[in-house]
From TrEMBL:
Residues 103-171, 330-357 are annotated as: Disordered. This is DNA repair protein. It comes from Geosmithia morbida. Residues 118-137 have a biased composition (Low complexity).
Length: 357
């Protein structure tokens, strides 16, 4: 079975489970009692003019932010976190329970952080107003250049000594962004070093995913199409050997393949085209007729007629078999190789060929 992307929106079972989880979370969140000051700073007003519960608004915003996930890992972690908070919100209905205190603290922390940021920003702006940076018209169109990756800090006449990024953590304004090893939907690994992905990284991941899908498709084709065809070919060869033994031929085993004679380029192209069209080749002693000098001479002399046979003769018609017998007889080798006195060998092969088609 071919590997495909997992799109949660197109999966009916996942969609039903996600909607049921969303409704259960919103219903449980509305039943949690919150302090008055936190209700006032809550989710605002709905379209109908009613006050939105802060917890219900948080659940809605989180579902909206996670609806674009297609990775099995992210979808599984989001669903498991939703079921975990469903049990917490169910127990948080009791005001004096530890779960209720935990939910209140979760809402209070971001609100306190926003209040402190606003107060610090207002105090700094009132005490020391930032001077406006005057820029000329030429500087507006120029982008700020990044420093080079490596800088030579050695003195003149000394061996080169380089220093560069990463910069020390003391001068950074935010935690250092370390590249992480991630995997896309089909499991192809790559390094994520920032979000959103640059176009070059997206194209690289997409190209490697296409190559991986092509390899999987070739393996599936070999198992589902080529292996049964090879089994049918083995059955055909076994049937030929049985008919040869029934006809009383002395050599029943398949002869050792001799080196292929030197054919012209057109004759070799005809042979490849003959094989690609799926038509059975005339068989001499169970081997490939193209390795025998008799057949090679026939092909070299009658390339035009062979092309007309392959173009006009439908599958199951015996005209090219009769023409092959005539050409071999005209080559001076007598009767067809492998034919007995009564000529029953080739007729039995033709009968089996009609049965298989």
């Amino acid at each position: 079975m071919r590997h495909t992307f997992f799109v949660p929106a197109r999966n009916s079972r996942h969609r039903i489970a996600a909607l049921a989880l969303y409704r259960a979370l919103v219903r449980s969140a509305r039943q949690v009692e919150l302090p008055t000051e936190q209700k006032q700073v809550g989710g605002g007003l709905s379209s109908s003019g009613k006050t939105v519960h802060p917890l219900a608004d948080m659940v809605k915003r989180r579902f909206q932010s996670n609806k674009s996930y297609t990775s099995l890992r992210l979808v599984y972690s989001s669903m498991s976190a939703g079921y975990k908070f469903l049990s917490i919100l169910t127990k948080a209905r009791i005001v004096d329970s530890p779960e209720h205190d935990r939910v209140v603290n979760l809402i209070r922390q971001p609100q306190a952080k926003k209040t402190s940021d606003r107060s610090s920003g207002s105090s700094s702006s009132s005490s020391q107003p930032k001077p406006k940076k005057q820029t000329t018209s030429g500087e507006k169109g120029q982008k700020k250049k990044r420093p080079p990756l490596l800088v030579n800090v050695a003195e003149p006449g000394q061996p080169p000594r380089y220093t560069g990024r990463p910069r020390p953590a003391s001068i950074l304004k935010h935690p250092r962004r370390v590249p992480t090893l991630c995997a896309e939907s089909l499991g192809y690994p790559f390094l994520r070093y920032r979000k959103p992905h640059p176009p070059t990284l997206d194209s690289m991941v997409a190209r490697n995913r296409m190559l991986w899908e092509a390899r999987v498709a070739s393996v599936i084709r070999a198992e589902e199409e080529m292996a049964p065809a090879a089994a049918l070919e083995d059955r055909w060869e076994d049937a030929l050997q049985e008919e040869m033994a029934r006809a009383g031929l002395p050599n029943v085993s398949v002869p050792t393949v001799s080196p292929m004679p030197a054919l012209s380029a057109e004759a070799d192209a005809i042979r490849q085209e003959y094989v690609q069209k799926g038509r059975p080749l005339p068989v001499e002693d169970g081997g490939d007729p193209f390795i025998y000098p008799v057949w090679a001479s026939v092909v070299q002399r009658s390339e035009g007629r062979l092309k007309r046979w392959m173009a006009r003769t439908p599958r199951g018609d015996d005209r090219y078999w009769k023409a092959f017998e005539r050409q071999v007889r005209k080559s001076g080798k007598g009767s067809v190789v492998g034919e007995d006195e009564d000529g029953d060998f080739w007729s039995s092969i033709r009968a089996q060929r009609h049965d298989s088609t």
